[in-house]
Amino acid sequence: MRIGELSARTGASRRSLRYYEQQGLLVSARSPSGQRYYDDDHVQRVALIQVFLTAGMSSRTIAQMVPCMTEPNMERARQALTAMNQERNRLSSTIDSLVAARVELDHLINVNLNFLANVAGIMPRVD
Question: Measured between alpha carbons, how far is 108 from 79 in angstroms, rounded to an integer?
Fold first, then answer.
């Protein structure tokens, strides 16, 4: 498939797909005229890249994991495992921080609801 079809199938813009290639996250085959060609495996790879980027991983970190996914060997696997464990720890820390922030927000919401109900004498509207 060409870049337009990969874009349509993944929701990634053509510009993003070119960026993924520049960063070494995605490798396409090229026609004699230089047009990019992709296969079905690329659809899954783009989805994985998008998940990682959405989770806050840098393209540099993702690039450290890609060689192990495309051409695994012992050294690449070790390097990728180190990068993956570091990212997992970072994500776990972020999740913990988000949960703590939600708990505090829930507390503030309850304080506000109690104030509105008790002091102002009105039933609060909860959105």
Answer: 44
> Distance between CA 27 and CA 16 in Å, rounded?
13
Q: Which residue has the tokens 């464990």?
A: 85
Q: What is the pLDDT of residues 68-78, one digit of tens each?
A: 666 778 888 88
Residue 117 in contact with residue 126, Cβ under 8 Å?
A: no
Task: Provide the 8-state DSSP code for 37.
Answer: E
Non-local CB neighbours of 122 within 8 Å, separated by 6+ positions: 116
Helices 59-70 and 40-54, packing angle to 10 deg: 150
74 three-class SS = helix
Q: Tokens 């813009």 identify what position?
A: 13
In whole angstroms, give the CA distance from residue 93 to residue 106.
20
The per-residue pLDDT for range 39-53, each reduced to its tens digit, is 999 999 999 999 999
- State which amino acid sits at residue 78: R
